[in-house]
Amino acid sequence: MRVCFTPLHAIAHVPVSLPTDVWQEKIKETMAAAEKVVTRYEAPCISYKINYQTVLRSGAPGEVLCQVAEQQKAHFVVLGCRGQSTLRRTVLGSVSSYAINHAHVPVTVVPHPLQRRLDVTSQ
Question: To which H or E segment does residue 8 belong?
Fold first, then answer.
């Protein structure tokens, strides 16, 4: 069985009217930050000899995740969640909720570490 880890960072489109030079600078800053996030996963992949391919795309994160999973012929998707409140998720949306409802493969959502601690202490 071939295992491939694909770190994905999707940059959401921001519908803002800015002067062209300011907009171009924001794009450069965002791309640099996104590349930093994606390359952060390369060292563990290399040290553990994990086959990987990084993906950096722009678009609605949930949609991009589902598109990449289909393009890569993924058998399943594992993603984290930030532990947003129900109200915030409802207003802003949730990438993990979108993936669960739209991906063509099984999706596993790993809770944010802080959320897991809160869940354990509240029981």
Answer: strand 8-11
Q: What predicted TM-score, i.e. pTM, was given to this entire model?
A: 0.71
Specify the long-range contacts of residues 95-102, CB closer than 8 Å, at least 24 apart: 95/61, 95/62, 95/65, 97/62, 98/61, 98/62, 98/63, 98/65, 98/66, 99/62, 99/65, 99/66, 102/62, 102/63, 102/66
C-alpha torsion sign, points 104, 108, 58, 115? positive
pLDDT digits (tens, 9 = 90+) for 33-86: 888 887 888 888 889 888 888 888 888 889 999 999 999 999 999 988 877 666
In sequence order, what DSSP letters do the residues of 54-122 get, joined into one string? -EEEES-HHHHHHHHHHHTT-S-EEEE-----HHHHHHH--HHHHHHHH-SS-EEEEPPHHHHHHHHHT
**Cα angle for residues 31, 37, 41 (degrees, 5° grid):** 140
